[in-house]
Specification:
The protein is of the alpha/beta class. Helix content is 33%, strand content 18%. It folds into 2 domains: 81 residues, no CATH class; 88 residues, Periplasmic binding protein-like II (D-Maltodextrin-Binding Protein, domain 2), CATH 3.40.190. The C terminus is likely disordered.
Amino acid sequence: MELTGAGEKLLELATDILSRVDRAEEVMRALFMGRPAYTVACLDTTAHFIIAPFIAETSAPIVDVRTVTPNDVYTALDKNVDLAVSTHAPPRERSVLELVDIPITAQFAQVPDWARNRHALELELLTNQRIVMPGFGSAVEDVVVGASSLLGVSLDLAHITGTGTIAQALAAAGVGAQWSRNPRASGYIRFLCSRWETL
C-alpha cells in the first residue's frame, strides 16, 4: 500500500496527536501522583556539564534529556519537550529565564609562555594560533566569529566540531587552542580562563 500526499499528511498529523496524548497522560499521571516530570531539550555539552549535575544535586523532577543541535533546541518544544536550554535567545513568542552565565575560555594542551599569568586574552593575541571550537550554530562560534569580524582579526579556524567536548579532546591532542564554554577537563588540558572584556 502506498499513501497519497493527503494520506501522508494525515499520518503525520495522527502521529503528532497520539504523541501529544501520550505526553498529556504522562503529565497528568505525574501531577496525580504529586510528582511533576519534565523533559528537557539541550545541547550534548549542556546536558553533560549543566543539566546532569543539576539533577544529581537537586533531585530536580527532570526525567529525560533530549540532546539536539543548536538550531533544533527551541523547535523541540513543539515535540513533547517541556523545557529548552540553549546558549541562544529564544524566539520572541517563548518565555525565557537566564539560568547561568558562563564565560568563553581558551584551553591549551600546554599553555604557551605568552599566555601565562593572564586572566584575560585579547583576541588579537590568537591570530597565529590554530583554533578548535564547537560550531554548527553554537554560541561560541557566533561570539568568536562575530568578534573577529568586528575587530578585523583573522583567525585560523583549524577545526570546527559538533560539540565542545570533542573540541577539548582535539585541543588536548595538540590540534590547536580550543575556545569553549565547557569546564576544564581535569587531567589532560591545562586551563586558562579568558573573558573577552573587549566584547
